[in-house]
UniProtKB/TrEMBL annotation:
PROSITE patterns: DH_2 (PS50010), PH_DOMAIN (PS50003). Pfam families: RhoGEF (PF00621), SOS1_NGEF_PH (PF22697). This is FGD2 protein. It is found in: Cytoplasm, Cytoskeleton. SUPFAM superfamilies: DBL homology domain (DH-domain), PH domain-like. Residues 5-193 form the DH domain.
Amino acid sequence: MQEPEEKKIALELLETEQAYVNRLHLLDQVFYTELMKEARTGKMVPEEVVKMIFSNISSIYQFHAEFFLPELQKRMEDWDCNPRIGDVIQKLAPFLKMYGEYVKNFDKAVELITTWSEKSPPFQELIAEIQKRKVCANLTLQHHMLEPVQRIPRYELLLKDYVRKLPPQSPDRGDAEKALEMIFMVAKHSNAAIAEMERLQNLWVVYQRLGLEDDIVDPSNELIKEGPIQKISTRNNSTSEKYLFLFNNMLLYCVPKVIQVGAEFQVHLRMDVEGMKVRELKDTEFPHTFLVSAKQRTLELQAR
C-alpha cells in the first residue's frame, strides 16, 4: 500500500520539526547558555549584549520542544485511527506570534555579533570553538539563527500542500483550512512588525538630520519624499540651494547647514499639506519651476 499524499506531508512536517527543535536546542542550550556563562564572568562581553543577540529564543525553544513536537509525535503515531493534524496546528498558531519579536530583532542581532567579534577576541574565539563542533555541521552561528526566521513561511508552505492533497471528504479538511488561515495571519503579523520597525527606524534617522525639533518628532508621520531644490528669488532673479522633506501631513522647507554638527538641516518653514496647492510655471529663464502655496506661505521652486 502506498502512503496517502497527505500523510507524507504530515510526516515531513514532523521530521522538519524534529530537526528544527535540534537547531533551537543548539541556539538556546549551547550558544546562548555558554556565551551567557562567559558573560557572567564579566571579561568577554556584557550580559545585556548576549540577551539582545538571542532575543526570546528560550521561549521559542521551550514551546517547540515541550509542546508542539510532542503533540505532533503523538498524533503521527496515532495516524491510522486519527488521520489529522489541523487541530494541533490550530493550537500552535497563536503562539507563533512570539516570533515577531525574534524576527524584528534579527538584523540587530547579526550586527551585534559582528561588532563584538571585532571588539572582543575571546567572544569571537568562543563562537568559533562552538562552530567547530560536530553539532554545528560546519555552519556559522548567523546561519543557525536564520532558521527561526524561515520557520513560519515553511509551516505555511507545508500546510498549503497538505490542504491541497487532502481528499474532499477528509475529517481534517475544516481544521486544516482554518489552521492554514491562522498561520497565514501570523506570517502577515510578523512581516507587518518588521515593516513598521523599519519605518520607525528610517523616520528616526530623518528626525536626527533635522535636529530633533520637538514639534516635528511624531512617530505617526510618514516620510513620502525628500530631496534638494532651488529656491527662486524674484527680487534679484537668482536661485539658492534648499532641501525639502515631504511628509503625509507637512512639507518642511529646510536649509542645509554649513557646519554639520548634530543636525544636517535647519527647518526654515513648516507648511501644512492640508489645503496645499501646487502649480507648474512656464518660465523660459528658469525651467522646471512650480509654485507651492499653503496657508503659511507661497514658494517659487525649481527642480533639477
